[in-house]
């Protein structure tokens, strides 16, 4: 069995997930990235990490499908033999008004964001040594959430993940496994980003978040040995 630390990142081939893979690789983790469709991005991620002297492999896995997740972690058991860190980054956002919310969109969102997160946690915990970690990516403002007509499925999935985060943190504390959530607000690649003159109306720090802002929080949690069950808003005060 390898003694190198292994991080599994869901939705890791592109955008935020890719940045977190690169951050973790630079800190010495071997990366296993689960992706759904972004084949080319997955291959370039493997190449980029290898060129920098790290190790990464990408497995095509639809995390909303239980059997695919089980097969991916069986593959990880055979190859890496362990999972020290799981980052559940998949978070599909397809906002529709709640009066027109299509049930297939509901199923897809809950399946990938919430159930997929649980499937990955379940299998990762089976390969995780004591002292391992799980970090889910949430959405800022979950603690004070009110009715949200647009994207109800998304907010239900993220709130559910927060409840799961706290339950797992309590349940696995005896193994010193820490389980936390990082919640971005509006990142500079957001599909909903307000214009530069308007961002200050929603975000007191008056700028969108960057991928580095989120990576900083990840790096903090890696070393924060007394922090578990928390949701860390990294959002410039969004939805205070
Ligand atoms: N961007 C923001 O402003 C913002 C704000 C708040 C919170 N967040 C959260 O931050 C996280 C990352 O955001 P993002 O904007 O980078 O996300 P994104 O562009 O939606 O990308 C997420 C990745 O998830 C993968 N994915 C989707 N469904 C999947 C499935 N069923 N199985 C496996 N992989 C799947 C996609 O892979 P393929 O391309 O291979 O399909 C994609 O690369 C999400 O949890 C999101 O909710 C983002």
From TrEMBL:
* GO molecular function ontology, one term from the record: oxidoreductase activity
Against InterPro entries, the record matches this protein to: NAD(P)-bd_dom_sf, SDR_fam
Name the Gene3D superfamilies on file. Answer: NAD(P)-binding Rossmann-like Domain
| Highest taxon above the source species | Bacteria
Q: Which UniProt keywords apply?
A: Oxidoreductase
The answer to keyword Oxidoreductase applying to this record is yes
Keyword Protease attributed: no
Family statement drawn from the similarity comment of this UniProt entry: Belongs to the short-chain dehydrogenases/reductases (SDR) family.
Name by which UniProt lists this protein: Short-chain dehydrogenase
Instruction: Tell me the organism.
Output: Candidatus Thiodictyon syntrophicum
């Amino acid at each position: 069995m390898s003694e190198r630390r292994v991080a599994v990142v869901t939705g890791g081939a592109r955008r935020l997930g890719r940045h977190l893979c690169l951050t973790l690789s630079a800190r010495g983790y071997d990366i296993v990235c689960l992706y759904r469709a972004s084949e080319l991005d997955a291959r370039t991620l493997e190449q980029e990490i290898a060129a920098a002297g790290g190790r990464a492999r990408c497995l095509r896995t639809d995390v909303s499908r239980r059997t695919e997740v089980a097969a991916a972690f069986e593959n990880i058991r055979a190859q890496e033999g362990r999972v020290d860190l799981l980052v559940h980054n998949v978070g599909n956002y397809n906002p529709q008004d709640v009066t027109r919310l299509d049930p297939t969109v509901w199923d897809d969102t809950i399946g990938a964001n919430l159930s997929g997160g649980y499937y990955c946690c379940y299998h990762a915990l089976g390969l995780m040594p004591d002292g391992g970690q799980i970090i889910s990516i949430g959405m800022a403002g979950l603690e004070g959430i009110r009715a949200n007509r647009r994207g109800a499925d998304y907010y239900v999935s993220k709130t559910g993940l927060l409840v799961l985060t706290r339950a797992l943190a309590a349940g696995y504390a005896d193994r010193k496994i820490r389980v936390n959530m990082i919640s971005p607000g509006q990142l500079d690649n957001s599909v909903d980003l307000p214009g530069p003159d308007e961002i200050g109306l929603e975000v007191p720090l008056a700028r969108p978040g960057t991928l580095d802002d989120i990576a900083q929080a990840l790096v903090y949690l890696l070393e924060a040995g007394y922090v578990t069950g928390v949701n860390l808003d990294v959002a410039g005060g969004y939805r205070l």
